[in-house]
Amino acid sequence: MNMAFKPKPLSVRILERPEANELARIDAFVSASAQGTAFHRPAWVLAVSRACGHQWRYLLAEDGTGELQGILPLNLIHSALFGRALVSSGFAVGGGILSDNDQAIQLLADKAWEFAERYSFPSVELRGGPVPDGQWHHKQGIYAGFVNPLADDDESQLLAIPRKQRAEIRKGLANDLTVRVGVGEQDRADHYAVYAESVRNLGTPVFPKALFDEVLDEFGEDADILTVLHDGKPVASVLSLYHQQTVMPYWGGGTWDARRFRANDIMYYSLMNHARKRGCNKFDFGRSKYGTGAFSFKKNWGFEPQPLSYATRTADGEEARDVNPLSPKYKAKIALWQRLPLPVANLIGPMIAKGLG
Prior knowledge:
- The chain is an alpha+beta fold and 357 residues long.
- The chain folds into 2 domains: 11-140 and 309-321, Aminopeptidase, CATH 3.40.630; 145-308, Gcn5-related N-acetyltransferase (GNAT) (Aminopeptidase).
- It contains 12 helices and 14 strands.
- Strand 4, helix 3 and strand 5 form a beta-alpha-beta unit.
């Protein structure tokens, strides 16, 4: 006689202290999951917390034997300007529930909302992962991700790039540019100076330098900085994350001179070759919003957009946070920010940006 299958009972508990054994268990769970990302890792969650002052929690779904069946990392974002939210994960383009167990997925989502209600967070934002059932709003058609395999060698990598973009790279290779990779103080200082100028030019406040430092320190060998220099002066720089043999150029930018030197093109092409030599086989260009210049730029490199899904839940009578710099309500503020002197933008920007989450 066949016995009816009974799923193992699951429970969810909250981890709120950095217990070494628990964090190692979470890290192993993320590493073992094909859907795991750098933004699920304790390294990311703790770095955000320390650098920006936001608390963190991990929701852990476990079976009756204590085995992990799913996790949900949360950063508790508080901002006078942008409001309060539970975010998975803070300052990230990924995160959300990590599980392939339907019961665990729903239990984690329910626990997150229960936590939000108890501590007066009007919304929960899941930046990736499965979408739970119930009163969760599924956001699609806004962002796309871009991932391509890396080629076998430098020349094959260049030939894999569409002709028009390949011509830009060849122009850049003819310029007097040098590439440096590292995580030392000079690498960090040069990267922050370039990135801060880049985001000011785009009209957005720069994150605190401590965020970049904490991420580099927490990730160790799984993060580095690649900088392109002209006559010894940094003109483009990117901080990249490495996870599951995939490189993600996460925080990158260039100065005004970067365009005429094709330094951004050299930066990404050099990163592809550097990552392959590190043992990576995929290049994750990150997310971009449909219809933007960044979206077109990545398509020009031969990357095909893959739609990304996000889920949010908001308390009755409340509006979801809007921290998208492309939102029409920020148009005037962006125009004003672009005119700020760089030292002023760098002084006040981090105080604003750490509340974005």
